[in-house]
Amino acid sequence: MWLETLLSEKFYDACETHHDVRKNEKNIFCLDCCVGICPHCLTPHGSHRLLQIRRYVYHDVIRVGDAEKLMDCSYVQSYTTNSAKVVFLNPRLQTRACRNSSNSCISCHRALQDPYFFCSIYCKVSLSSLSFCV
To answer: Which of 10, 56, 67, 95 has the fewest CB atoms below 10 angstroms from its CB?
Structure first.
């Protein structure tokens, strides 16, 4: 399944095919091939459905608008970066205990703002079934 592969892919690592070329970080996910690719790998995937992976506080995120075309992102906390709303693919490590937070992720217990239940797509998938429009 493409979602499982997306959540386990190591983005922003160097592309093995283009290891000797500049700007070779894997920051695109091909939904049709279920593989992370770099910008130099785009040609054979030109007609495929592609998802751009972005970075926010050193973690992989996708735009909410892109994610909502593929899955139900309701109740996943979103953040704004470069004027775009994004959601985390995977949970972030907690550096300190959660204090005075009335709301936390149902899966990993990370502090959240109301009315969210999940801190990442991974946490939502791990506890619920999603509606896919693939």
So the answer is: 95
